[in-house]
Amino acid sequence: METTHRVFVGDSRDLSQVTDDSVELVVTSPPYPMIEMWDDLFTELDPAVGEALAAGDGRDAFEAMHAQLDRVWDELERVLVDGGIACINVGDATRSVDGSFRVYPNHARVLEAFERRGFDPLPDILWRKPANSAAKFMGSGMIPPNAYVTLEHEYILVFRKGEESRSFEPGADRRYEAAYFWEERNRWFTDVWTDVRGELQAIDATDDDLRERSAAYPLEIPYRLLCMYSAYGDTVLDPFWGTGTTTLAAMCAGRDSVGYELEDAFLEVFDEGVEAVPALSRSIGRARLERHREFVDRRREEGKGFEYDADYYETPVVTKMERGIRLREVSAVHETDDGYRLEHAPLVLE
């Protein structure tokens, strides 16, 4: 099996190099409006943002920032197939503007934008991030009533384009081989993720400016979402590519990918580390199998049995749908004019 991974340096408000109805899944994390680190970017896109902030008008600045994201959502509506899924990782912002502190509900504004474009919202996920500090309050400290709750979660908003789910030919191997284990389903398809931890970005620590412009989520998040909402042979798009975390997840999960990024410096850093992808994909696959075997041992200790065996691995499984699971590992990486072509082989345990 082969996958292709294209990365374009360009503005994601114009995804002209992506054809209509050619993407099955979007996994992305846009710059969050009203988070100060993104002020300059949004002001470059629309000077009205800077003018509103300078005038102390947080509401107008918030709406002007989202108006730029809206143009990206227009493009997603065009390139997603009917029944395709969009997963948007976004956090709300807390900020004082002109002396007034408030929360800016980015997740609600994005939800509204997708509904206006005809997407059906699906149950979302709260990703609880590790706390960076023992301090759990903002404002007046221990004296009521003017303290504020600390935001320690982000949203993964999930949308389907249109009312109908995707359909596949009966018994499609690329779907059944991409199945997940029963216990993975129970952990992944819960609405609160507390077992995902942040990680340092894979960026040269000496490049302070590049690090400042990075806000990547942990690899575990896009990897899970790809396994949950796509099959082998599908294409995943990340219009806010950043450090390439979604592409890295697609490489390890055996899906095609497309990314758009304004800063070509991020692509250079990604290129330097891509040789590690085969080992990473192998370790992820082996870790999934090892966790499954630990689950098997625990279930047997509880006196529970299994009715089925996996076709490609010497392990029992809970459901008939898991029998065809066949994990992939990257066996070779080839650079192309606009990205990479990867060869994948079935994961075999030694």
UniProtKB/TrEMBL annotation:
UniProt-listed Enzyme Commission number(s): 2.1.1.113
Reaction(s) catalysed (UniProt annotation): a 2'-deoxycytidine in DNA + S-adenosyl-L-methionine = an N(4)-methyl-2'-deoxycytidine in DNA + S-adenosyl-L-homocysteine + H(+)
Coiled-coil stretches: none
GO molecular function: DNA binding; N-methyltransferase activity; site-specific DNA-methyltransferase (cytosine-N4-specific) activity
Pfam families reported in the protein's UniProt record: N6_N4_Mtase (PF01555)
Gene3D superfamilies xref list: Vaccinia Virus protein VP39
Domain called DNA methylase N-4/N-6: residue spans: 23-269
A Gene Ontology biological process term: DNA restriction-modification system
InterPro entries on file: DNA_methylase_N4/N6, MeTrfase_CN4_CS, RM_Methyltransferase, SAM-dependent_MTases_sf
Entry keywords, A to Z: DNA-binding, Methyltransferase, Restriction system, S-adenosyl-L-methionine, Transferase
Family: Belongs to the N(4)/N(6)-methyltransferase family. N(4) subfamily.
Protein name: Type II methyltransferase
Species for this entry: Natrinema longum
